[in-house]
Amino acid sequence: MKETGIIMSGNHPKLILDGLKTQTRRTWGLREINANPDYWRVRPSGWQGIWEFYASDPTSDSARLKSCPYGQVGDRL
Question: Has residue 75 been placed in a domain?
């Protein structure tokens, strides 16, 4: 498991310290995926700690891959 710092605003840091907030969403760098989320799937890549978004391109026989910029499932932000 990897820990990565993230910027928070408002009362979020206090909620985390009080144990009231345990998850957060980050969508930076995922614009193409967020535009059509049902088209994409997630899988572990061949590299330790890296996850990929993948989709079959309907105009090609190849698959398109995008690495997740936030690590893997279970990492702490």
Answer: no
Note the pLDDT of residue 37: 78
Separation of alpha carbons 34 and 75, rounded Å: 21
Cα-to-chain-centroid distance, residue 60: 25
In a domain, 73, yes or no: no
Which of 76, 47, 59, 56 is CA-nearest to residue 67? 47
Letter for the amino acid at 17?
Answer: L
Structural domain includes residue 74: no
For residue 15, what pLDDT is reported? 92
State the pTM of this model.
0.41
The answer as to whether 46 is a domain residue is yes
pLDDT category of residue 45 using cuts at 50, 70 and 90: low
